Structure to design on (353 residues):
């Protein structure tokens, strides 16, 4: 059976024509799935009963099973999903004032190998399909009461989104479409380790989204250690490709910097970072390291964080420290993974299935 969420609108309209149905049924069906939170074709009560049966015979709406639902005291919720082939991914709902943001995955695992991140510990298995990417958003949306809507998407879950642009972009198109999830493209951020060729493809094809580039080091020697994929790319190529995205999109860039105690949090690291960022219309998003079971890194002390921040601020760099959310359930940045770590149990575990 085909996954309905994988189907572009035109393909669904073509299928509808083959069963003698008008094209407008397509937007009716999408509306039911995206906005009215239908869980089965039978919920779509304004479709003819025969069409509902034909749809159910031909398509599946859900391919993922929620195998664990964890909630943290700060309002963060995490879903562990098992895909049709047994692959496992995680995705997160974050609450911040009126914001209802979701963090979604783009691959099963990750091939980039960043040494401080849980998502790549077991390597990459495969790319997610468009439908699997959308399914995460829909399952997370269902955690909200009917009168609340998702407001932001960050593609910062498991995987390297720019390694899966072909499946990701149609999913974000549906997410941002007024008749889809209706989340403005300005509230959607793609975070990348920095793959220049894919960045250029994005600059050429789709510039409505915010781009966040994971820097983590201001020189190639250190970055090669922290982000192994850098060895064949290099900072210069990433920065110039990011600049080209800025020129094409006009959207301010974000650079991310995981702060690792004793590794990249020294004053000289901050000064080197200033030299790179000065003159670039960018926001620096510093993420104090979120602990990952089994990894040797430490979160810098409050005073080391403050010292780092002050150097950047004094130099006029626009800097924000990312608030840690969801770490009680291993849902914070860099803590999502394919396998369950032995020593982490969620505070609250609710089964949805
Ligand atoms: N592959 C994408 C998305 C990664 S997740 C990318 O590289 O940008 C989003 C951010 O969380 C990235 O900047 C990533 O490097 C960072 N991150 C990974 N592990 C982390 C950890 N243990 N603590 C804090 N941030 C982490």
């Amino acid at each position: 059976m085909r996954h309905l969420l994988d189907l572009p609108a035109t393909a669904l309209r073509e299928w509808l024509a083959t069963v003698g149905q008008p094209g407008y049924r397509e937007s009716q069906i999408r509306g039911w799935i995206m906005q009215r939170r239908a869980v089965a074709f039978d919920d779509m009560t304004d479709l003819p009963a025969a069409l509902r049966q034909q749809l159910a015979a031909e398509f599946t709406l859900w391919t993922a099973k929620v195998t664990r639902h964890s909630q943290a005291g700060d309002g963060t919720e995490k879903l562990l999903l098992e895909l049709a082939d047994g692959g496992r991914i995680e995705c997160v709902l974050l609450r911040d004032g009126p914001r209802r943001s979701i963090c979604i995955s783009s691959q099963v695992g990750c091939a980039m190998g960043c040494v401080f991140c849980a998502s790549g510990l077991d390597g990459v298995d495969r790319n997610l399909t468009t439908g699997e990417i959308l399914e995460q958003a829909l399952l997370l949306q269902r955690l909200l009461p009917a009168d609340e809507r998702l407001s932001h998407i960050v593609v910062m879950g498991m995987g390297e989104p720019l390694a899966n642009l072909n499946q990701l972009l149609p999913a974000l198109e549906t997410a941002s479409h007024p008749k889809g999830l209706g989340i403005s493209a300005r509230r959607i951020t793609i975070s990348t380790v920095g793959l220049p060729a894919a960045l250029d493809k994005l600059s050429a094809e789709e510039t409505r989204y915010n781009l966040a580039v994971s820097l983590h080091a201001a020189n190639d020697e250190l970055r090669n250690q922290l982000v192994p994929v850098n060895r064949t790319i290099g900072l210069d190529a990433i920065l110039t490709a990011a600049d080209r995205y800025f020129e094409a999109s006009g959207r301010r860039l974000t650079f991310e910097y995981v702060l690792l105690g004793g590794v990249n949090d020294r004053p000289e690291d901050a000064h080197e970072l200033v030299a790179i960022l000065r003159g670039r219309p960018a926001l620096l998003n510093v993420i104090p390291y979120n602990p990952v079971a089994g990894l040797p890194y430490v979160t810098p002390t409050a005073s080391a964080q403050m010292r780092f921040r002050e150097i950047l601020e004094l130099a006029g760099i626009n800097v924000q420290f990312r608030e840690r959310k969801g770490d009680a359930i291993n849902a914070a940045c860099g803590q999502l993974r394919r396998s369950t770590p032995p020593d982490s149990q969620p505070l609250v575990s609710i089964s949805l299935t």
